[in-house]
From TrEMBL:
Erythromycin biosynthesis protein CIII-like C-terminal domain boundaries: 283-391
Keyword presence, Transferase: yes
GO biological process, one term: antibiotic biosynthetic process
Cited Pfam families: EryCIII-like_C
Species in which this protein is naturally found: Catellatospora methionotrophica
Protein name: Glycosyl transferase
Length: 413
């Protein structure tokens, strides 16, 4: 979102970023003004339980449903109220929303403004040709598979009708809107959806609406970042033909025992250089490191990924897109939120392995990394899709599409 905001600001647009206090400076740094959450409950996305105790660690069905109820939908009416008050004070031409900030969708509907959704996860739009979004199944093949997917969609519709629709309509009522029968798709823009990724990484479908555009990876320009004293070892390893394996859990799922520690245990002593990032946790929390393992809180992906042979990740969509754009094959161990969807797309597209768990054992990680290193076609496929990602245009393409939506509104006045 900061990449889109920065591109629009660079083009001379007045950009107001409505976001939590944690991200104020990130948006100000790219030239946007800041509007704080006021009626909506602000929170730290790396510690949801501090503000929303029922979410707990966010894992499993119970944690996921609590996240939807208390965080995503629970803050929606307050978000809409904040945005409506701001637009009454200072009119806007366009709303551009992280598709999980549901209040912006409610505000757009109330105001009758054109609005655009930026899909910050794999495209969640339902299709009559695919399993339901979020259901743990790959796209079907053949007539029997299509029958299976149709049955799955019916079953999921019945379940969401009982579980999600009441939450959705309570949120809408809180924003002064009538009930909807449109389900979760009603929270996606009917004007423009900016989908990250490209065809080939995303499942094909013939019923994709014309207002959905794949724009590759949306990423702000990398900031200068100090490199650790051992950085030269990464460059030397690559030059010497020693495989470099990057292991990351992103910045939100920070339980080091989920992936980082098993990966270190599994890859310690292997003929690879392992480069870990903790996402902010102190490096010494990892304990003693094997001789072939290096670790830092953060590392710049624009510097690291071109030197990387395999990336082991819990499936954050942004990190996976960065790896694919750099032509790096993946091992994904994802279990919460959208991460299983990401892992399925990695396996389906041929750019890596899906471990089907968020807490793999050391031996499982070791086997998967060995398999990816032994299959050069995975790296070749990643490079192929990486070229497509770069060609899709990123934030520049997104801004051009958004300007087109503004132009349509101005022309219609």
């Amino acid at each position: 979102m900061s990449a889109v905001a920065g591109e629009l600001a660079d083009r001379g647009h007045e950009v107001l970023a409505y976001t939590g206090a944690k991200y104020e400076q990130r948006f100000r740094a790219v030239g946007a003004q800041w509007l704080p959450w006021q009626r909506a409950t602000d929170f730290d996305d790396s510690d949801l339980a501090a503000t929303f105790p029922p979410v707990g660690d966010g894992k499993g069905l119970r944690g996921g449903m609590a996240n939807v109820e208390h965080v995503l939908m629970g803050t929606g009416a307050g978000q809409a109220a904040d945005l409506l008050a701001e637009v009454a004070r200072r009119p806007a031409d366009l709303l551009v929303t992280d598709h999980l900030a549901f209040g912006a969708a409610l505000a757009g509907e109330t105001l009758g403004l054109p609005w655009a959704s930026v899909s910050v996860t794999p495209l969640p739009l339902e299709s009559r040709e695919l399993p339901p979004p979020g259901f743990p199944a790959m796209p079907a093949r053949g007539p029997l598979g299509r029958v299976r997917d149709r049955a799955l969609r019916s079953a999921v519709h019945a379940m969401t009708g009982r579980l999600l629709s009441p939450m959705l309509n309570r949120m809408r009522a809180g924003a002064g809107l009538p009930p909807t029968t449109g389900g979760m798709d009603s929270l996606l823009s009917p004007h423009l959806i900016l989908a990250q990724g490209v065809v080939g990484l995303e499942y094909p479908r013939t019923d994709l609406p014309p207002y959905v555009h794949f724009v590759g990876r949306l990423a702000a320009a990398p900031a200068a970042q100090e490199l650790p004293p051992w950085w030269a070892e990464v460059e030397s390893a690559r030059s010497a033909g020693l495989p470099v394996v990057h292991v990351t859990q992103g910045t939100l799922d920070v339980d080091l025992s989920d992936l980082l520690k098993p990966a270190i245990a599994g890859l310690g002593g292997e003929r690879v250089l392992v480069v870990c990032t903790t996402g902010g946790a102190p490096v010494d929390a990892l304990g003693p490191l094997p001789d072939n393992v290096r670790a830092a809180r953060f590392l710049p992906h624009d510097r690291l990924l071109p030197l990387t042979d395999v990336m082991v990740t819990n499936g954050g969509w942004g990190g996976v897109l960065a790896a694919v754009q750099a032509g790096v094959p993946l091992v994904v161990a994802g279990a919460s939120l959208d991460k299983p969807e990401v892992a399925r797309r990695v396996a389906w597209s041929g750019v890596g392995r899906n471990l089907h768990t968020g807490r793999p054992g050391a031996a499982r990680v070791r086997r998967a990394v060995r398999q990816v290193l032994a299959r050069p076609e995975l790296a070749g496929r990643a490079r192929e899709l990486g070229v497509r990602m770069a060609a899709a245009g990123g934030a520049g393409a997104a801004a051009t599409l958004l300007e087109g939506l503004i132009g349509e509104r101005v022309a219609g006045r």
